[in-house]
Amino acid sequence: MSLEQAIRGLVPSGSLVFVGGFGQCVPFAAGREIVRQGVTGLTLCRTGADILFDLLVAAGAAKEIVVGWFGNPGIGISHICRRALAEDRLRLRETSNFGLLLRLEAAAMGLPFLPTHVLAEGDLVPDGGRRSVVCPFTGLELTAVPALVPDVALVHAHRADPLGNVQSSGILGDTLAGARAARRIVVTVEKIVDPAEIRADPGSTILPAHLVSAVAEVPFGAWPSYVDGVYDRDDDYYRAFDRLSRDPAWVDNWVQDTRTGVAEVVAPARKAALVQAAHEPPHAA
Amino acid sequence: MSLEQAIRGLVPSGSLVFVGGFGQCVPFAAGREIVRQGVTGLTLCRTGADILFDLLVAAGAAKEIVVGWFGNPGIGISHICRRALAEDRLRLRETSNFGLLLRLEAAAMGLPFLPTHVLAEGDLVPDGGRRSVVCPFTGLELTAVPALVPDVALVHAHRADPLGNVQSSGILGDTLAGARAARRIVVTVEKIVDPAEIRADPGSTILPAHLVSAVAEVPFGAWPSYVDGVYDRDDDYYRAFDRLSRDPAWVDNWVQDTRTGVAEVVAPARKAALVQAAHEPPHAA
Amino acid sequence: MQPDPATLAMAWHAAQDLADGEVAFVGIGAPGLAAMIARRLHAPGITMIFESGVIGADPDKPPLSTGSPSVARGAAMLGSMMDVFAALQKGIIDVGLLSGAEVDRFGNLNSTVIGHYDRPTVRLPGSGGAHDIAVLARRTVLLMPHEPKRFVQRVSYVTSPGHPGVGPRRPGPGRGAGPAALATPRALFRFDDGEMTLAAVAPGFTADQAVEGIPWVVRRRQTLASLPPLPALDGPAFHFMHKGGAE
Amino acid sequence: MQPDPATLAMAWHAAQDLADGEVAFVGIGAPGLAAMIARRLHAPGITMIFESGVIGADPDKPPLSTGSPSVARGAAMLGSMMDVFAALQKGIIDVGLLSGAEVDRFGNLNSTVIGHYDRPTVRLPGSGGAHDIAVLARRTVLLMPHEPKRFVQRVSYVTSPGHPGVGPRRPGPGRGAGPAALATPRALFRFDDGEMTLAAVAPGFTADQAVEGIPWVVRRRQTLASLPPLPALDGPAFHFMHKGGAE
User: Fold this and answer.
1) Would you give per-residue pLDDT tens digits along chain C (247 residues)?
2) Which of B30, C157, B265, B36 is nearest to B44 (CA)?
3) Is A29 helix (H, G, I), strand (E, B) or coil?
4) Is B126 left (phi over 0), alpha (psi -120 to 50) or beta?
5) How far is C50 from chain B (nearest CA, A)?
6) What are the start and end residues of each CATH 3.40.1080.10 domain in chain B?
7) How many Å apart are CA A188 and CA C168, to the nearest integer?
8) Which residues in chain B have their CB less than 8 angstroms from residue D87's CB?
9) Which of A137, A169, A199 has its CB closest to that of B144?
């Protein structure tokens, strides 16, 4: 299935969308396709939002975010979300990262809630309100967090077979919790491979075909984030974004360039540099 | 640390012991050392018991088992445990495999209980009694299972560095849930390797050093179970055990041979055959 | 270890209820065999899940245990036990294949004790994942040898709940629809209104033989179907059973 | 991106509270830097855990984010986010290193909003894992630049709870002991009786300078210790900061 078809069929306007990726494998290509198709009214969720959230908010695709953190990871705040919040174009439902992770984990486990020791103190009110639950064995009072069931999860990974058995490596963060929590999973991969290649190394499979609704090959589909051992993070892009995204005019152009496909053209030399950096041995001098 | 020291220091009589391994990597060497040292009064737990439980029960090391299933996996019942139960030498606390897994998972997550949809119907009464918990968001009534916190988990794996970073592959089953649930972890491995080898492939690490109290090199330490890609399961042993273990005299000899170390001497030809079988490609003709 | 012809027939009959593309939670022995046969014949896209955490298994011979090397080799994914039970509890497993020492007319299974719990006549290995599969799979298919002592009015211990005895089990959150079929070497039963009902008979057996020895008057559908004959044992579907080596 | 000298000093002072063999839950920026410095000097056996799931990280340069390639490369284990938060909730993480936009005299941290929640003056990125670390780590060490506006009597929003304001935080199941220390570029504070208390001063600063601008009368220990001087920037401890390339 092409990415165009997958998004058109599986990410209708108004969906609750889990956005996978943690540092690496952020599904930028899928996000750009959502922008191109003019999808609207999405609610986005994950623990810590990457700048892909900014694109979807700036383009008017997302009206709400459910997160533990939002910003430019390791660099600073989200200028785009901050403006959208101030202008009431965006609704924010926030919790802590662990709180959000447990909401996804509850859904992945088929449970309506999970208990936890966090979110009982301080001003963070869990989504759904602060509710407690008492352990029937110890009498200990815990906080309950309600399951969060995304309509669809977007995941980028290293490779998959045409059936949808997906393999990856490196940092996964909350990607699998969110994917397993969702009703459907749409996957982009660097490479579609033969099923025999997957079955020769089943320990590397992170999602089985029966959970995956669509898989599309999109090389460099996580750029400007990275794919462990394939290409490195484009840190320059993230740094520049902090500066550029303060300017609404630049943001409008960026959205426009995304719609026309210009925004995702990576210069060959830059691609080569990112690929080379990913192949340096650890702790190289 | 030697296995002898690890068991002496970390598995005192009376401990609640999680026994890792699921088909593969059953920690037989550690179990045999427990028998040799004359440890007594243990409670053993895991989802489905392997015949290592039979050895520990027959030797008088274990007085109680907390399981979802006990027997000779894929072959039949446990003649040894059946006799011990009938003769009141053994106490059984049983639940379903998922129920037991959730008890370990609760402990691994630092929670006193977890909710579940199972164990509400039928005659299986969860350990700690049947208690319900109501979801404060949906009003749905669920069953609560109490955390099970082993004093120590026994794990066999492929390799570890001297610090205790442990790597494995293949079927893990409930091994990591039980290990994370426990207060201490004692690990035997086929091979101790350099820390650099572990850090060159951090995706294969299943347990980090800070959770591991002791690690000892014991090649063939999972026999007669197997180690994925190293040596295969000694199915003949398991089959013969079903017949032999019906005879109390044979069982007494077996315990005696374990105490003297004779029981774990594997004939070189048999070793070679099991190693060779593990290196056949999948679906070989 | 080759299965005997009666076990094979039972697995073949159970396989009739498995459709292509379904996700099946299976165990060792006859339940696994049923899925392996379906996968090699009419349901090549079936996904076999074992409680050991193996997903999309494709054993090249009948495995001795759910943790055997042949279960892992050539599988689509090696997950954890929690992965597969969480999926089961989430309600996304189409069918669970189950057996037990005893079954009753409502599909309750006993794999715990025969006789009194504290002083049993026969102590069995216990639930394992059977209770969980019975409660959580969208539907279950039961496999029972045609041994009349295994069929009882009411099992002495309900390890794996079937239908409630007053109509069919009601599915809901964390709750599947219960037994859809029960396969024996002689017949396939359905659970019309939640009660075991003879639905189809294997070639060479009469309806009376299909229920022979079962200690209650077994309901029968008005029109009984015929089960397809067991494919030739030397055909490609059963090639996998003739392999030697480790299991 | 090399840290400025003040950030470096703050990290160095926080590192004084980290002992060899401890397990530290760290983030990006100054908290991670503190653990990296400790690991290269007095605490080589420290285990650094990032919320991205990376355990025993050994970044060869200060990473840009917790999910950066340099966090994964050369680590002891790549786990999941659930692995590391579950360990945190289990109470086995010795120390969490935290920062925030504002801190108050009881060690409460704000990283959510300045001003009213619905119409904030400044909207910050939110908790991330900070709330969870503050509640669950056995103890926390806070890092704050010496910017007086960041020190307030009471934070306007408690993202990450500190001490309750009436004595020290009581540890218990799923509940750590709270802030043990707060490091600035000028000093190290302790939380005697749950209140921020000047305990040690960095070379070149007086006690008065250590609390300069903080809008309440900061408690001081009777005897103030001296913090060790920052090691030479061109020494081996800081070699890792001079590397280029992707982070």
Assistant:
1) 577 899 999 999 999 999 999 999 998 889 999 999 999 999 999 999 999 999 999 888 888 888 888 899 889 999 999 999 999 999 999 999 999 999 999 999 999 999 999 999 999 999 999 999 999 999 999 999 999 999 999 999 999 999 999 999 999 999 999 999 999 999 999 999 999 999 999 999 999 999 999 999 999 999 999 999 998 877 777 777 766 544 5
2) B30
3) helix
4) beta
5) 10
6) 3-98+149-275
7) 42
8) 180, 211
9) A137
Residue D102 among the catalytic residues: no
Which of B24, B27, B30, B74 shows the shortest CA–CA distance to B278? B24
User: Class for domain B3-98+149-275, per CATH?
Assistant: alpha beta
Supply the pTM of this predicted model.
0.97
| Cβ within 8 Å of B, C 177-206 | none
Best CA proximity match to C9, nearest among C243, C227, C240, C241: C227
**SS3 per residue for chain D:** CCCCHHHHHHHHHHHCCCCCCCEEEECCCHHHHHHHHHHHCCCCCCEEEECCCEECCCCCCCCCCCCCHHHHCCCCEECCHHHHHHHHHHCCCCEEEECCCEEECCCCEECCEEECCCCEEEECCCCCCHHHHHHHCCEEEEECCCCHHHEECCCCCCCECCCCCCCCCCCECCECCCEEEEECCCEEEEEECCEEEEEEECCCCCHHHHCCCCCCCCEEEEEEEECCCCCCCCCHHHHHHHCCCCC
Tokens for D204, please give them: 């070149």
Q: At A56, which helix (H) or strand (E)?
A: helix A52-58
Largest CA distance in chain B: 62
Residue of D22, D90, D93 to mutate for B, most B C-beta atoms under 10 A: D90
Q: Does C158 touch chain B (CB under 8 A)?
A: yes
One pLDDT digit (tens) per residue for chain D, 247 residues: 577 899 999 999 999 999 999 999 998 889 999 999 999 999 999 999 999 999 999 888 888 888 888 899 889 999 999 999 999 999 999 999 999 999 999 999 999 999 999 999 999 999 999 999 999 999 999 999 999 999 999 999 999 999 999 999 999 999 999 999 999 999 999 999 999 999 999 999 999 999 999 999 999 999 999 999 998 877 777 777 766 544 4
Select from A98, A120, A283 the Cβ nearest to the Cβ of D129. Answer: A98
Instruction: Write out pLDDT tens, residues B44-65.
Output: 999 999 999 999 999 999 999 9
Which of A83, A95, A84 shows the shortest CA–CA distance to A61? A84
With residue B75 as reference, give the H or E element that holds it.
none
From A277's Cα to the closest Cα of chain D, the distance in A is 7
Greatest extent of chain D over all pairs of C-alpha atoms, in Å = 49
Q: Give the distance from CA A240 to its chain's centroid.
A: 21
CA distance D9 to B52: 56
Closest chain A C-alpha to B138 CA, distance in angstroms: 7
Q: If you ran DSSP here, which 8-state letter would residue B70 be given?
A: E
- Reported ipTM: the value is 0.97
- C139-143 and C179-183 beta bridge pairing: parallel
